[in-house]
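Need a sequence for this fold. Nothing fancy.
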């Protein structure tokens, strides 16, 4: 059985260390994807968000679990979680 290439980790501009957003392949159902990840991660990693509107999850992951996610057959993408800033126009 040949191994698939590792999923790249997309960088965030203002990343939160250790936090990532993981999406699953279109062919993988949300519940199946979440279970396939949560059943394999270390107790030091933690899934913090599971959404209905995104086929994925977010959490804090150890380096070892991040490597597991990168090689997981159900994972489509991994992105660093980050801060989002809004700019409010200055009053005149």
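Here you go.
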């Amino acid at each position: 059985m040949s191994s698939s290439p590792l999923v790249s980790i997309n960088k965030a501009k203002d990343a939160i260390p250790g936090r990532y957003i993981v999406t699953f392949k279109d062919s993988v159902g949300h519940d199946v994807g979440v279970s396939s990840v949560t059943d394999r991660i270390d107790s030091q990693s933690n899934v913090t968000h599971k959404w209905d509107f995104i086929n994925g999850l977010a959490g804090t992951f150890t380096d070892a679990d991040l490597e597991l996610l990168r090689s997981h057959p159900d994972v489509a993408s991994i992105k660093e979680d980050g801060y989002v800033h809004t700019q409010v126009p200055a009053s005149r």
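For context: The helical segments are 30-38, 63-71.
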